[in-house]
Recover the amino acids of this structure.
């Protein structure tokens, strides 16, 4: 089954995937989420279900039930949802999908890379406190490598070019500079926080608060 229409704006939406125990696994695109919902196992049981936040509670739907609910939402609250148009019907893009047959949790850690460091520090220089585009930022080692400072979440921060030049190969104390805040290791991928800032993804929060901090982004 591949009913999605190319170019539909709803396909740009993101969906949180949970395992059978409601632990966060990854974030996927709408097309992948619908693929999970449409698949069935060898006993003709659905492999996944929709988890919908409604009135302070979470309610589960199989694909057919979600399709029926979508027809009501199309009539009464069409502007509140992302939609995908198919040949035969329109359907709401779910915010959360639960994979019923998958119990394992992801093992990989949040990678210490430029993308995640910039996301953790919100593209903000940790010395002057100003926000910059990624092209205007660099990575600074608080204790310089020339002084045996290593690569760790606690020793690297975003830094603008001007502050990086000013600090040079010194520690902040030696350069008479102060950090905006102490750097810490994220509990989960910091890029997820960008999505959580959008109201439409607020229903993810409860699951991510209790998730492994190494939620995988796809």
């Amino acid at each position: 089954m591949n009913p999605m229409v190319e170019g539909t704006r709803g396909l740009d939406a993101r969906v949180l995937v949970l395992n059978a125990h409601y632990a966060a696994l990854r974030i996927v695109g709408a097309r992948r989420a619908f693929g999970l919902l449409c698949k069935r196992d060898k006993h003709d049981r659905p492999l996944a279900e929709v988890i919908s936040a409604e009135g302070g509670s979470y309610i589960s739907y199989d694909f057919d039930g979600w399709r029926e609910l979508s027809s009501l939402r199309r009539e009464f609250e069409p502007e509140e949802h992302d939609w995908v148009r198919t040949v035969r019907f329109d359907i709401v893009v779910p915010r959360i999908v639960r994979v019923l047959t998958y119990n394992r949790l992801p093992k990989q850690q949040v990678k210490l890379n430029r993308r995640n460091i910039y996301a953790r520090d919100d593209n903000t220089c940790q010395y002057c406190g100003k926000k910059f585009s990624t092209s205007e930022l660099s990575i600074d080692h608080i204790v310089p490598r020339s002084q045996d400072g290593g690569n760790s979440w606690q020793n690297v921060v975003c830094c603008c070019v001007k502050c990086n030049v000013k600090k040079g190969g010194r520690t902040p104390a030696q350069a008479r500079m102060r950090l905006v805040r102490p750097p810490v290791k994220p509990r989960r991928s910091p890029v997820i926080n960008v999505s959580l800032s959008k109201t439409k993804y607020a229903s993810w929060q409860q699951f991510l608060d209790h998730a492994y901090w190494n939620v995988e982004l796809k």
